[in-house]
Amino acid sequence: MNVGYARVSTSSQNLENQINQLKRSGCEKIFSEKRSGKNEVDREQFKIMMGFVRECVVLYITKLDRLARSVIDLHNIAKFLQNKDVNLKVLHQNIDTTSPAGRLLFTMLGAIAEFERDLINEHVREGIEAAKKKGVQFDYFI
Predict the structure, then answer these.
(1) Where are the domains of the chain?
(2) Buried b (16+ CB within 10 A) or exposed e, 3-28
(3) Which string of DSSP letters, residue by residue, matches 26-87?
(4) Of 9, 11, 12, 25, which is the active-site residue?
């Protein structure tokens, strides 16, 4: 059975593109939600999907960052899936964990994705600090 998981970070974003890609890949059941990936506890559909997948299931996602937001999370999710004998396919990065090379690529791309996210967050913080020095006031905390 092919199972899909789609996620966007905010309610203003659209899940349609991811869901269509997962359907075209043959997913028979798709779990989707509009939640930040930072906190797994808040991702109700993710928890349900992780409980649903079982041996011989292939879990499809469109991109690695839809599944996890850190290398540690990615590693824990991969171990959990491996223990349940669930394979993972990541469409955009062409990752298939049924092979050793696919598992290696999965781990490397997860590290790169986390590095990229950290760089973006650093640039945002720098931009906010520069704006504050110019007198811009913010009504929220980052």
Answers:
(1) 2-133
(2) bbbbbbeeeeeeeeebbebbeeeebe
(3) T-SEEEEEE--SS-GGG-HHHHHHHHH--TT-EEEESSGGGT-SSHHHHHHHHHHHHHTT-E
(4) 9
pLDDT tens, residue by residue, 17-35: 999 999 999 999 999 998 7
Domain 2-133, what architecture? Answer: 3-Layer(aba) Sandwich (3.40)
48-73 confidence digits (pLDDT tens): 999 999 998 999 999 988 988 777 78
For the chain, the average pLDDT equals 87
Tell me the pTM: 0.72
Is 11 designated active site? no
